[in-house]
């Protein structure tokens, strides 16, 4: 896939200032409704979960309440499992996979785990089908003590009271063709760096934590998802998106040092899913189902280990 190397905002080699960020923002438009697609679905789940508003984004005239859903039958002797979606708002199946899990599957774990699910961390990006927030900041590189992203700060505040109790955290993402056609060129332009084209993998893969890889955990998820959709192969260099493939469909990143959402706790079991919705071999429903299969497999694996 060939893409132009010049992004239409800014001067090559020069990082954006306020004028360029304003020009970028003017190009963004609402393409779908967070309230209709996400908040309405959460409202339908109020009778089954404790719904907590953990923050609100104020972006100009737009206000976005942030919601998490928790197990009603919370017990201190049960392991805490954290599921996050929509950290990159444009990654649709992360949001809808989390909501589908809550609606159809979470009841299977009642009385066995304490669930916390934040299905749409970045609603501004969800509505505009974008990776960044209003300020051209990537929330998934902003889970740091001095975070520049309100989305990331809000989620960290939500998690803080129980972060030491989280045993498993699965963060639901997608890798899309638009990563190469739009988002990576925009990132290079924003930071005043040259754009280096990459290769989008065709299929599902996982990003583990290089400081705590847990290979058996990652492989259990891959095996479950392989029954739903295809797993991304390594490229000619034995890599996926520039990182060494350490097992079929698995690469590792240093999640904490990169400020990734997967590093928001010190959970023993951590992973980030990457669904490929642009594949001709995958439907939107398959993508949602793959996310759900990953969540279920992650929880099942931890329970089989007898984790507390």
Structural notes for this entry:
It comes from Lysobacter arseniciresistens ZS79. One of its GO terms (molecular function) is zinc ion binding. Its cofactor is Zn(2+). Residues 30-306 form the Peptidase M14 domain. Keywords: Hydrolase, Metal-binding, Zinc. With 308 residues, this protein is of the alpha/beta class. The relative contact order is 0.17. It is built from eight helices and ten strands. It has helices at 18-26, 34-43, 92-105, 123-128, 150-159, 178-191, 215-225, 284-304; strands at residues 49-59, 62-71, 80-85, 114-118, 166-174, 205-209, 239-240, 243-244, 250-253, 269-275. It is globular, with a radius of gyration of 19 Å. The protein has a single domain (29-182, 198-304), classed as Zn peptidases (Aminopeptidase, 3-Layer(aba) Sandwich).
Helix-strand layout with pairing:
Elements: H1 18-26, H2 34-43, E1 49-59, E2 62-71, E3 80-85, H3 92-105, E4 114-118, H4 123-128, H5 150-159, E5 166-174, H6 178-191, E6 205-209, H7 215-225, E7 239-240, E8 243-244, E9 250-253, E10 269-275, H8 284-304
Parallel strand pairs: 3-4, 3-5, 5-10, 6-9
Antiparallel strand pairs: 1-2, 2-4, 6-10, 7-8
Helix pairs in contact: 3-8, 7-8
InterPro entries: AstE_AspA_cat, Peptidase_M14
Pfam family, one: AstE_AspA_cat
GO molecular function, one term: metallocarboxypeptidase activity
């Amino acid at each position: 896939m060939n893409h132009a190397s010049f992004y239409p905002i800014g001067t090559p080699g020069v990082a954006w200032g306020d004028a360029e960020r304003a020009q970028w923002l003017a190009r963004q438009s609402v393409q779908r409704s967070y309230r209709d697609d996400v908040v309405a679905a959460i409202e339908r789940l109020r009778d089954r979960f404790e719904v907590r508003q953990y923050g609100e984004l104020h972006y100009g005239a737009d206000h976005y309440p942030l919601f998490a859903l928790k197990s009603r039958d919370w017990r201190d002797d049960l392991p805490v499992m954290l599921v996050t979606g929509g950290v990159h708002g444009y990654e649709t199946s992360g949001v809808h996979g989390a909501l589908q899990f809550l609606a159809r599957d979470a009841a299977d774990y009642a009385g066995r785990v304490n669930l916390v699910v934040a299905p749409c961390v970045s609603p501004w990006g969800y509505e505009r089908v974008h990776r960044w927030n209003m300020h051209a900041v990537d929330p998934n590189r902003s889970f740091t003590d001095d975070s520049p992203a309100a989305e990331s700060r809000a989620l960290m505040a939500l998690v803080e009271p129980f972060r030491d109790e989280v045993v498993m955290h699965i963060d639901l993402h997608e890798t899309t063709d638009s990563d190469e056609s739009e988002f990576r060129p925009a990132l290079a332009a924003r930071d005043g760096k040259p754009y280096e084209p990459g290769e989008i993998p065709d299929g599902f893969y996982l990003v583990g934590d290089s400081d705590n890889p847990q290979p058996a955990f990652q492989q259990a998820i891959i095996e479950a998802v392989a029954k739903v959709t295809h797993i991304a192969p390594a490229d000619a260099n034995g890599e996926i998106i520039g990182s060494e493939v350490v097992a079929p469909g698995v690469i590792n990143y240093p999640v904490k040092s990169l400020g990734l959402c997967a590093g928001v706790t010190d959970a023993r079991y951590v992973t980030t899913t990457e669904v490929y919705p642009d594949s001709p071999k995958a439907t939107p429903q398959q993508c949602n189902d793959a996310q759900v299969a990953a969540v279920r497999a992650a929880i099942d694996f931890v329970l089989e280990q007898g984790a507390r």
